[in-house]
């Protein structure tokens, strides 16, 4: 009769190992092991870095020779000079050319204009996502913690903003602040897009405020502000972060829609939505003036959405997705059993 050999001591997790594996590390590990989300995060950062390095930022110059506001002579009827086809295949080789994205109808370099549009659209996205998250978190936290008349007043204000379409509110804000600069427009739009986060945070606080660790903090004499921001909010941070990424993805679409309607960023500044609006009549004759900003709008919105999905899965591992191969195997087994 064989005897069971004891498991090696180094294979048994010690108390220090368990203690070191805190919640933050588990969430980070789940997120970085999500290949789709990590690829999307890298691509999103790469687009931002590329746009900044190309035309510069503020007093810092970029490596591209043209400015987005300079007028240049029309070359090749304004057609894009970007080439991906090697010479040995009959192309012009892999090169950017003089104007890789073409030129506008008045001779502006469209590559520089698109990169400037990416910078401004991303800035508006970050401002709306950041400021909107802060406002929504504070409103939801106060309403969910204090309840009673405080909750009633704050939630009725939230309901009023929710009932009015975001595009209508954004149009009013954009018409007033569109000419004041990207920063002012982004902050004011954030002040009218915080409602969804407020309701989610309120729901989390209504649940967490009844937990034992909150009662223990009250008995210990902790103030309301300390209980809200030091005890309850860290346990609701998952909802806040995921909601912030989804709000950022919605923000770029809101800015694009407002600029397209003429209520967003005004000249001489450039945004991706404004580029589409200015060149919508040239869709059939110069389609590249329409497609380049459209590609970046869709790419940025999708990348942020995929990053948000990865964060949601990292914070809540119960939300698992069925892999295609497993679904196919399950279908094959079901078909075999049926036969």
TrEMBL record:
Annotated protein name in UniProt: Peptide/nickel transport system permease protein
Transmembrane residue ranges: 38-60, 122-146, 153-174, 180-201, 232-254, 289-311
Recorded topology in the membrane: Multi-pass membrane protein
Superkingdom of the source species: Bacteria
Entry-linked Gene3D superfamilies: MetI-like
Biological process (GO), any one: transmembrane transport
InterPro entries xrefs: BP-dependent_transpt_permease, MetI-like, MetI-like_sf, OppC_N
Family statement: Belongs to the binding-protein-dependent transport system permease family.
Keywords on record: Cell membrane, Membrane, Transmembrane, Transmembrane helix, Transport
CDD domains reported in the protein's UniProt record: TM_PBP2
Localization, UniProt: Cell membrane
GO cellular component: plasma membrane
All copies of domain ABC transmembrane type-1, residue ranges: 118-308
One Pfam family hit: BPD_transp_1
UniProt feature coiled coil, ranges: none
Organism: Paramicrobacterium humi
Keyword Transcription regulation assigned: no
Leader sequence segment: none
